[in-house]
Design goal:
By secondary structure, the chain is α+β, with helices and mostly antiparallel strands. The protein contains 18 helices and 14 strands. It has a single domain, classed as Cytochrome P450 (Cytochrome p450). Helix 14 packs across helix 16. The structure holds protoporphyrin IX containing FE. Protoporphyrin IX containing FE (HEM) binds next to helix 6, helix 14 and helix 18.
Length: 408
Amino acid sequence: MNGPDILSAAYDDDPYSHYETMRNDFPVYRHEPTGMYVISRHADVARALKDPPFTNECYAWQAEPVMGGRTITQMDGLEHASYRRLLGAPLRGPDFRRRVVPGIEQASAELIEKFQDRGDVELMSEFATWLPINIMSTLIGLPEADRPRFQRWYLALIAHMSNLANDPDVAAAGVAVRAEMTAYLRPLLQDRRARPGGDILSALCRAEFEGARLTDAQIQVHLATLMTAGGDTTVSAISNTIKNLLLHPEHLRATMADRSLIDRMHAESLRLNPPVHLILRYAAEEVRLDGGVIPAGSTVGCVLGAANRDPARFSDPDVFAPYRDELDPGREFTPAGSLVAFGQGRHFCLGAGMARTTVNIAVNQLLDALPDLRLADTAELRETGMFTRRLKKLELCFTPKAHPTVTV
Ligand code: HEM
């Protein structure tokens, strides 16, 4: 008997129904089609994410070819620490509120304005998929008119990195985007070197590592990393937080009345429906885990989605329970949290604070602008994705705000 086939259509439709089987009956198993070892228990996944002999070497074949160079996710030691400082600076820091928050508020309000008078919205295509890319392209310093192109880029790059089935069309599309990015960025980087501004592009043009300025190719890798890491993940976090609130009217009412609860609802949504379900690691030596033994030299698939629902870590794990004892919303957006949704250890998500703020602003504004927000009768709530996972659609309706009538 084999463990669940993570490449099957049934698994894509509903991985959750396989997670219990994985944790109980196949806590460490070799997935024959890919040759990787799959682990799913919270203790094992948390350990593989942060402790030796597990390493991030697999990003060398998963990310590097399509990103065009070494990504922060595969770095170690001093190099990793330097790039965390460089890439992290624009995403956090003491002046984050003044520098970044007004832009997020504006980006969210602009999207809501387009549908708030209508009474219905498909939240994925009209809001959630745009908000992160609109925010990131402003921060990076990319032209507003090209946002649809940036969205197409990051989706193609993610698809390439998730292409365990080796689909040749997906592989070709990712490589084509890499070349397109190189040509697109060349004049833009020349311009920023001549006329630097306050954006991330300018900061990367100024940055030095070991006494040398970053090359165009290196800058491209980091931009592509920020787009892919912050894009679909935040899309999923926004939409799942709204979905879970609408499925639980008592929590929606409480959150309407007390907006400080949004972090709690968001954190529990990250546990129940994490934006990242699968992360790869490499076992540099043979290692014995709670669930079994992994041979030296293996690629390891860490199933975050299953770990976040492990009853050994979270009571009643398949239920949306934002007040559960194991959850501390103040810590869940830091490496000290109980979830593995943002990873663990030194590669803990660099954008967790940014994601927290974005979801907070988005949920606040949606609840303010769309009275009586509810799921449409036609809403299906189907998800897709093996590495990053999100709703296909989120059809909502609400009572449009009445405009004051103008009498002449
Ligand atoms: C709810 C939203 C998000 C989730 C669930 C998420 C999840 C993750 C996870 C699981 C990792 C660890 C990968 C690993 O260990 O192999 C990670 C790393 C990372 N994330 Fe996020 N992420 C989110 C939002 C963002 C945002 C908004 C940004 C930036 C704009 C971002 C940038 C990064 C970067 C740069 C890394 C690599 C850190 C390193 O290797 O040191 N993420 N993220």
